[in-house]
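Usage example:
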Amino acid sequence: MIILKLGGSILTKKDSVNPEIDYDNLNRIASEIKRSLDKKHKELVIVHGAGSFGHPPAKKYGIGKEFKNSEYPEKRIGFSKTQNAVKKLNMEVCEVFTNNNLPVISLQPSTFISTSNGRINIANLDFLKKYLKEGFIPILYGDVVLDDDLKIVVLSGDQIIQYLAKNLNSDKIILGTDVDGVYNKNPKTNNDATFFKEFNSLDDLDSFDLTTNVDVTGGMLGKVKELLELADLGIESKIINIGKKDFVYKALEDEDIKGTIISKK
Ligand code: ADP
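Running the assembly step on the lines above writes:
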């Protein structure tokens, strides 16, 4: 079973003020997945980020920050608006995927996942497994969820990936984003950033200024933190640049492509 993350940075234009989908990337990736599955059937679960869709309402209403009970009515509206915004992105992703004859089934995290202090504590994966068994491709995405301590939080696609990898028997975990993998510092703002073929510890990073994209869930730092937790359990994952043509296809086909493997030392 393969778990594939499609970064919000690739599916949406994160820099634009209004949420906008990058249809070129989305169509290309859908056709690459189709091409690989046509070659040989694979069990696949897809998780996508929220990109520019979740950010504006989540930021406006300060979702994820502590708040007073008197502010709850407004926070609930922020929650609803954020949930609706990421759902719109998910609908478009599913539309493009079904147009490519991919049998996707959208599973909305806010309806079956909750957290405690921001970490997943309830998530019933029975339905996901049922759909997988029947040959469907479950799609989940970064969403807002209820939290036992903080009431409402943003749940990143990267944390979902980590949870699924721990709880499903996956043999491959691929995280697609808009850079080639992990560098010692942000490669977009530092020409001299050095690339890691393998990454084992946060100590290897030069700075913790790890996010340039507008993101409420932690950018590359959030990603590697989740993946290092998996590495501690002996589960390896790989970060690749899916802005590059054929990289999703090649990753699904086990071809050797540039990327960072997150593993234990
Ligand atoms: P996605 O939306 O694809 O999940 P994010 O935008 O959250 O990805 O994170 C990827 C971004 O993290 C890259 O575009 C890059 O600019 C930034 N980044 C910051 N620090 C690093 C680093 N040390 N190595 C790689 N990328 C980094």
